[in-house]
Amino acid sequence: MEPWSLGVDIGGTKVALACVNAKGRILAKMKYPTRPQQSKEAIFEILIQSLKDLCAQMEGSPVSVGVGIAGQIIEKTGLLTVAPNLPSLNNFPIQQKLQEALKLPTFVLNDVKAATWGEWWHGAGKGHRDFVSLFIGTGIGGAIVSGGQMLTGQNNCAGEIGHMIIQMNGPGCTCGNRGCLEALASGWAIARQAHAAIQRAPEEGEAILKLAAGETVTAQHVVEAARKGDPLAMDLVDKAIQAIVTGSIGLVHVLNPARLIIGGGLGAALPGLLERVSEEVSRSALPAARESFGVVGAYLGEEAGVIGAADFALTHWQGRGDDVAQVGP
Ligand SMILES: [Zn+2]
Prior knowledge:
The structure is a single chain. Residues 322-329 have low confidence and may be disordered. The chain has helices at residues 40-56, 94-102, 111-122, 181-185, 187-200, 206-212, 219-227, 231-255, 265-269, 273-284, 287-290, 304-317, 324-327; strands at 4-10, 14-21, 26-33, 65-69, 72-73, 80-82, 106-110, 131-136, 140-146, 149-150, 259-263, 294-297. By secondary structure, it is an alpha/beta fold. A hairpin with a 4-residue loop joins strand 2 (14-21) and strand 3 (26-33). A five-stranded mixed beta sheet has the order 3-2-1-4-7. The longest helix is centred in the C-terminal third of the chain and has 25 residues, at 231-255. It is 42% helix and 19% strand. Helix 5 runs antiparallel to helix 8 (231-255) and helix 6 crosses helix 7. Bound molecules: zinc ion. Zinc ion (ZN) binds at residues 163, 173, 175, 177, 180, 182-183.
């Protein structure tokens, strides 16, 4: 049997696990809800048991394990220093603990980098050595592949595109700054702007409130109302798209990517987003930077994380890791 790896994607609402082969194909998978209130021991025990249960469905054993998780990870040791969705895992040596429990080489990386790795080798980034990914959901994450390498920066923190400042003195962000891309165009930012607009002029928010049907207004309600032609919702969506366009032009100038890959639930839902970014980059970016540039949607959807984490682990298990730049996709 061909070698295969375990991929783990630990998100804010669910933990997804999969057995993935070198072609990026999922051979078996399962998922369960994330329980942030649990202790680190309980979270870890359930993860190990679930991985063992999943492996029991397979012939043979995995060669390695890859884990994508939201937060800050020390690259060399796989120590998880900050895990915003699972605070009980702060300062948890997740890579070492998994390696000890499963007796397999284990690799831990940021969840957005895992999804980007998946898109690189098995999705929308296939064949490219220079691209930027932008995942727009409740928050905004990104990663950069440049010259055939996924950039880490000195502290494994490169690619925090959501916290790139787009508007000086703009609205406040979760990071403490003002005018970040995330504070202008993420799910939580669109919902916040909708709430504020509806408070100012309740009659203008009727269509959005009707869709929310008594629940708290979310970005999904705003997008749905915009698709139906509601003026307030269209204006909110337009402002979010304009912020993404501005950020994209900056990224094109700084990194000269061949592709911008846009993923995430909201990235796929914002009406006309890909076309607008593509048109405005063609119009505004420096000619040399925009030549052969294209905007594409992510291919792998929700499975990008597990596929990417598993493929990252398989690649590094094979010892190709540092040669990626030379090998290329
Ligand atoms: Zn920020």
